[in-house]
Amino acid sequence: MEVYLDNCATTKPREEVIDEINYMLRTCYGNPSSLHRLGLNAEKKLNEARETIANFLNVRKDEIYFTSGGTESNNLAVQGIVEKNSRKGHHIITTKIEHPSILNVFKYYENNGYHVTYLDVDKYGFIDLKQFQNSLDDSTILVSVMLVNNEIGTIEPVWRIREILKEKKSNALLHVDGIQAFGKIPLYLKKWEVDTFSFSGHKVHGPKGAGGLYIRKGVNLDPIVFGGNQERGMRSGTENTLGIVGMGCAVDIMNRNFHEEREKVNELKSYFVKNVSEQISDIKINSGIDDNFSPYIVNITFLGIRGEVLLHFLEDNGIYVSTGSACSSHGKGGSHVLNSIGLKNSEIEGAIRFSFSYQNTKEEIDYVVDILKKSVEDIRKVIMR
């Protein structure tokens, strides 16, 4: 049996998405900037995808800009805001548990003279709102917070961030890294008054290489890629038309099945956590299971075991999981997220991230728990010798 539980890293494309991409490759291969029929057909498909995604997010279609994926979207938002507003101030705020595509940009600006505040989080991963409130000043131009943490699933209260910005009469713009939230939790970008919001196609059963950025009407950013003025000058370069159309197809299906699929995943996560807790000793569950956490993610430490060793034991039995963010897997050191929530090095070393999708079944979960239990017991026997 093959069981894929690494859906935060990427998801398996839906069959309908694969069919749509094949159609684009074979039939609708024109450049959407070309004026002939093939170009106009490609442009039409591009606009349909833009409208589908805008409708899902309940925003205007001219507020959606396509990119190559989540990393570019985050870079465009952060760099675009900072460069546009550098004359207004040099203070920017983020959290200690952001994705590298945010943290590394902030480190870049910190090394180039900007004052950066990295917000602390509690043991569940929730940001310190009092620290945030106290850190705001007249020089603050940007606040960037991940809505759903990609390692432990914490849902940050971005709506409270906006309230605090209003209370403090701050003009700072609010960027939300929405890559693990898009298609996974209800989104209210207009109500929350989010200025920019990033998303990615391959996290929602679409293709890799396509993503996007919502930019609220009236918010001005400096582009970071220059060229032929595609995407209204915000992101030049020939659009990845087949990837964008594939992403639009995935979002269309996801929109129609959102509540049903989310409820199924929520039940699977609860079922998994319950069975692991009952059948395997000496574990530490690093993710919550209530509504303040994504139903798609659970992070568990298996004490006394190296997570990488357990990962390969599971892989040998057709089970695919992760020890953390796929984008950080080649880096040195343990998870900065687990370190920030106060875990010891030994607890970080034994952590595994399980991330679910609508494609998973209860039978798969039973199989995973059985193999997980056996693998943990076998590894611990070897260690105890």
- Distance N to C terminus: 31 Å
Unreliable residue stretches:
none
Q: What helical percentage do the residues reach? A: 40-55%
What form results from the Cα inertia axes?
Answer: globular
Order of helices and strands: EHHEHEHEHEHEHEEHEEHEHHEH
Q: Would you write up a description of this structure?
A:
With 385 residues, the chain is an alpha/beta fold. The chain is built from 12 helices and 12 strands. It has helices at residues 15-26, 37-57, 70-85, 100-111, 129-135, 158-167, 189-192, 241-279, 307-315, 336-340, 345-349, 362-384; strands spanning 3-4, 64-67, 91-95, 115-119, 140-146, 173-177, 196-200, 211-215, 283-285, 297-302, 319-320, 351-355. The strands form 3 sheets. Strands 2-8-7-6-5-3-4 form a 7-stranded mixed β-sheet, with helices on both faces. A 3-stranded antiparallel β-sheet has the order 9-10-12. The longest helix has 39 residues, at 241-279. The radius of gyration is 21 Å and the shape is globular. The two termini are 31 Å apart.
List the helices and strands and how they pair.
Blueprint: E1 3-4, H1 15-26, H2 37-57, E2 64-67, H3 70-85, E3 91-95, H4 100-111, E4 115-119, H5 129-135, E5 140-146, H6 158-167, E6 173-177, H7 189-192, E7 196-200, E8 211-215, H8 241-279, E9 283-285, E10 297-302, H9 307-315, E11 319-320, H10 336-340, H11 345-349, E12 351-355, H12 362-384
Parallel strand pairs: 1-11, 3-4, 3-5, 5-6, 6-7
Antiparallel strand pairs: 2-8, 7-8, 9-10, 10-12
